[in-house]
Amino acid sequence: MRLLLVEDEITLNQQLTKALTAQGYAVDSSTDGEDGLFNALEIDYDIAVIDIGLPKIDGLELVSRIRQDKTFPILLLTARDHWQDKVAGLNAGADDYLAKPFQAEELFARLKALIRRSSGQSNPVLVFANLTIDTSLSLVYLDNEPVSLTAFEYKVLEYFVRNPNKLISKTELTEHLYQQDFDRDSNVIEVFVKRLRQKISPQQSDFFIQTIRGQGYRFNGQQ
Fold this sequence. Notes:
- The chain is α/β, with parallel strands linked by helices.
- The chain has helices spanning 10-22, 33-42, 59-66, 83-92, 104-118, 151-162, 170-177, 188-200, and strands at 2-6, 26-30, 47-51, 74-78, 96-99, 125-128, 131-134, 139-142, 145-146, 167-168, 209-212, 216-219.
């Protein structure tokens, strides 16, 4: 999942970038509202974390301007623990808020919940035929037996199951799973998809992940 982080406190920005990357997000970070707005309008994000107190363009205005063009979920970070500020953030277009200081685990849980809701999947446990994905615990089961996936294999699978029946190009997968400086011409996506197929559908390799020649992939969303 590709995530935009806009936080002007350098230490916190670095800490959150590291923690979110460890959670499997491809993080683009900005330290002011102007740069954050540029990224938000130029890149197709899955979710954003935005601090209210930003230089150049404050967080509330940033959210409002993003909402003119983009619909991805936004979580606001605020040091202003007053209900008026929370209401202002929600009215500007944010989907949730988190008051500082906060525990990283709560941030992770809120982000997962927002992503589930944005994809129309309120239940963290997703079932497709004999394949079960627990997105809250990042666990996968095939015929009720655990499937051992690498962190990146799971990221690829989760993006597919968040977008069932949608045609997804290699470029789109790359943009949502990697940092900005990743080599977009790499064939590594094909390698991971092949390995993933072998693990989640060993009897029929293309049962879940179907190749659309010359266009990309489609995940079989039959449940």
